[in-house]
Design brief:
Two copies of one chain form a homodimer. Chain A is mainly alpha-helical and 208 residues long. In chain A, 75% of the residues lie in helices and 0% in strands. In chain A, α6 packs across α7.
Chain lengths: 208, 208
């Protein structure tokens, strides 16, 4: 396609990412078809090439967008001076539930891109997103342990406990839908699961 | 292949399932190649057709084998008369960690087969394996709540908390291996994660 053919409306890049995210969320998949993307966004699928090179580039851009928002938000929480460690962790766990409700594909997309990437790109993903999360958990938990309100737990293992419990809930959606005619992606169930998870995990870490 | 060509050694069916399980566990995948299966088991890949019809049939048989062992074991635990509810749940959570250590592909295999099955087969999987787990959790938790040792939690949500926390740990293995040169599939790490998980989740559910 010649450059002159491109008529990229303002916000087209963002709209492509938003639409790709919605397709994966609703379809419970970690893939998109360019024709569906074009149909739903109302944008020429050549714009994918223009902005992202190809579909793999689009998926990578989506991963970066989603993770950067998470890392920025967690870093801000760690830095907050006017909150107790308990309130911080409680807010963080609530946020994890809301995040996986919004982007239930995140874990599977991360795994897919790590699997399909070369070593340098896999390491970039790890260094950019997983390492900051580990560091944030180190800080959040160390603060609570020092204050005597948290039991001493391994922050890295605790990270798996939290994200696993949450991720699993939304990723099991397909089974619930298929087999029990339940949709886990409702606000009512999200709120119930948020309360349940905060409750169980906070009770699990608080010092008696 | 004529039937006369088949020389199925005793235990060949079991050996095929064991080998398929080992391939998926070690490769962190939910698929097998019949040539690799044949090479590693030392068995003619025509035996897959003989016992299972095709590869999909083999995967289904593996799912059934793995889930039946879990359901039988959980049912026996629920029935045990000489254990406190707390001891039962503690043993169950330990067992979940050991199960996912042995068959880390279980959740993903279940999702794959539900996704690729027709409605009747998806419902069979749900009725045979997920419903019994829900019922077991209902019983285990109700027993503890009645005895005043557990807080009142939603058994179905609690099921996701437990299995998600455990499953995630082993399914993130690829990332840890790729990015941090760690292998989560070691007995040392399994034991550490078992202790951590039992600790956090029991503290999360016990009444104060």
């Amino acid at each position: 396609m010649a450059e002159g053919d491109l008529s990229a409306p303002p916000g087209a890049r963002t709209l492509l990412l938003d639409t790709a995210s919605a397709i994966m969320r609703e379809g419970d998949v970690v893939d998109i078809s360019l024709s569906e993307l074009s149909l739903r966004s109302g944008l020429n699928s050549a714009l994918v090439k223009y902005y992202f090179g190809n579909k793999a580039g689009l998926l990578k851009a989506l991963l970066d967008r989603d993770w950067q928002a998470i890392v920025t938000s967690v870093d801000a929480l760690v830095q907050k001076g006017d909150m107790t460690p308990e309130a911080k962790l409680r807010r963080h766990i609530s946020k994890v539930v809301d995040t996986f409700y919004a982007i239930p594909y995140l874990n599977r997309l991360t795994m897919r891109l790590v699997r399909e990437s070369d070593d340098a790109e896999a390491r970039r993903i790890a260094d950019s997103y997983l390492s900051p999360m580990y560091r944030a958990y180190d800080a959040l938990i160390e603060e609570g342990v020092s204050a005597g309100v948290f039991r001493k737990v391994d922050p890295q293992l605790f990270y798996f406990t939290v994200t696993g419990a949450v991720d699993r809930f939304f990723s099991v959606r397909l089974v619930l839908k298929h087999c029990f005619d339940q949709d886990t992606l409702t606000e009512e169930l999200r709120d119930r699961y948020r309360e349940h998870t905060v409750d169980i995990i906070m009770a699990g870490i608080l010092a008696r």
